[in-house]
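Summary: Need help interpreting a holo structure output

Steps to reproduce:
1. Submit the protein chain below together with the SMILES for coenzyme A.
2. Request a joint structure prediction with the ligand placed.
3. Inspect the structure token block that comes back.

Expected: a single structure record containing both the chain and the bound molecule.
Actual: see attached output.

Input attached:
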Amino acid sequence: MNDERSILNTGLRGVTIATTRISDVDGKAGKLLYRGYLAKELAGKAGFEEIVHLLLFEKLPDKTELEELRSRLINERSLPEGVLAALGAMPKQALPMDVLQAGVAILAAHDADIRKNSQEASIEMGLRLIAKLPAVVAAWERIRNGKPPLEPKAELGHAANFLYLLTEKIPDEETVQFFDTALVLHAEHSFNASTFAAREVASTRAHMYAAVGAAVGSLSGELHGGANTRVMEMLLEIGSAEKIEPYVNEVLETGGKIMGLGHAVYEIDDPRAHILAPMSKRMGEKTGEPKWYEISTQLEQAGKAAFKKRKGNDINVNVDFYSASLYHYMGIPKDLFTPVFAIARIAGWAAHVIEEQFAGAAPKPMLYRPESEYVGNYCGPAECAFVPIDQR
Ligand SMILES: CC(C)(COP(=O)(O)OP(=O)(O)OC[C@H]1O[C@@H](n2cnc3c(N)ncnc32)[C@H](O)[C@@H]1OP(=O)(O)O)[C@@H](O)C(=O)NCCC(=O)NCCS
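--- attached output ---
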């Protein structure tokens, strides 16, 4: 036992474990900054590729830098044959986040730079993952439906190309704009569970892919990125306005959770939700299926009111709540919502891995190694006396 251990803090809430220049979340004010810029101001004005530049190269690009980054990403969009073959060998019922996590490891196996240990090599690997993860997600959707993956289209931007690879249709401008904005809003969010997982792995000096693979696993859980899929399942289960109240009461009565509500950091509504909601509304009108947006808004109000009545305090809407109906309107299958979250968050993960490996603000990052409090075992709090197997 370590007598000098610090106070037990399950979940590490409020514990500051590193410094970062990448982003900041002010939970009280509901502010999210990407390298000093308010995410809500970037959304709709700067495209996902600009945000990639901001996060990885620490500044918004000028036109030449943006063009250069775009062509680097376009050149990296295709998947190696070996990766496609490995995806083709996966059982069709596999969970898409498991396929994505495996895909990250298989991409590592195909990266000729994997043994290079420099900031430039890490940036290159980060860019490859940003370019290729959408291709993995879209290829998997095609493969599991018995269709061959499509070739990327160099004339399409990052957001449009993904929707094309997924649906085989060139999306209209407004849909592309909304999807691009959703990618921007999901690109980075400080030391959340998956980013912490990535940084923890990077702190061991493991490579970019190893860190990102861990992050994908972490994002898959329903308390984190997996919530967006669970929100859509909840909307489908509710199905109509009159079922909202009974649903909310039943969930709260049985100690369940209303997906898309609550946040570990925000004490008011997640600012990203307020940008996603109007896009969902517009897509509902456009597709002639406003019901999913309408159920969402009514559920948000009913869920907040019922929570307050029961617990006495407020609960707020988070990023996953309105992204669910938005992605549904875009024709994205609900079990791909979390992989779609990943293809945006890869930008933030890559920036954090690079910061952890090479560019940490003082004090220098070090190997993460927290303590645990040993609370005893089946033979009690003391040490167990060993009993040979024939005497047990
Ligand atoms: C995100 C989340 C994990 C934040 O957790 P947290 O701030 O640590 O809060 P806790 O999970 O400890 O919950 C505190 C209390 O509020 C309740 N609560 C939290 N979120 C809730 C929700 N969405 N619906 C119903 N009750 C909720 C908990 O049951 C708990 O009640 P208790 O004190 O009676 O046990 C939590 O709000 C949640 O599970 N939300 C749903 C999943 C989700 O949308 N995740 C995506 C996050 S971006």
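--- end attachment ---

Reviewer comment: The first strand starts at residue 23 and ends at 26. The chain has two domains: 23-226+333-359, 227-329.
Status: needs-info
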